[in-house]
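Risk register update: the risk of archive-format incompatibility is retired. Evidence:
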Amino acid sequence: MKKIYIFLLAVLSLTQLNAQDFCSDADSNLIYAYSNVKSAYEANNIDHLKYYSEKSIESFEKAKVNLKSCGSKKAYTLAAHCAELIAKVESQETFEDGRFFVKRARDSVQKSITALNEFTASNAQDEFAGDDTTIIASVSDSNTGDASAELSALQIEQERLEQQRLELEAKKKEIAKKLAKQKEMATALEKEKLINKYEEALSENIETYNQLLETYGSTSKVKPNTSGKKDLMNKSVIEIKAFYIDNIKQVTNAYLEELNDI
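Archived output:
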């Protein structure tokens, strides 16, 4: 009988040692997973966020296997929850949505590591034999609170970004209006210079024609066509040029007709 007790004691000791090994491996897996989740949370773009999230998944799966053998159901439940959260990151289209799940996973893996440490410190009594309802409920409540806080923070951030977008849009419209006004003023100045240039050339030609007519003994005078001159500023540069070309043609034709009558 004494030998049987010794044998059972040896088996029990060996089982406890094996469980401790699994717990130690699980701890390493969780720490490595936490490192990658932390890197994902600190990423500044969605590509890096997804890269580190994907790296953490393998560690979470290894941790789940070791935690099963280790016997810590609470740590296992939290690790499994982390794996579910981090798996959702890949399907997210925006950086903010992906980071939402990373934040929740980061908080849960910290709790999983703490639960495992508490389990091993209490001589690692197998928790899987007990009811897991309380564990799941406590984990769910904790994560629900974290999710609500994170969602509120995300909504506030989205509202802030929307306000910034509206302000930038208003500033963009204001700048566009100023540029349009400046362009309008520049165009008006160009038209004014062009009109003065053409007007001066037309006046010089009329003065020359009238002097020649006077020289040849004619009392007639040629005059420019002033019809439509007031609307020139509302016309295009091409239309202004066409107006003065037509005017110089009319003045020239009138001058030639007067020469024929002398």
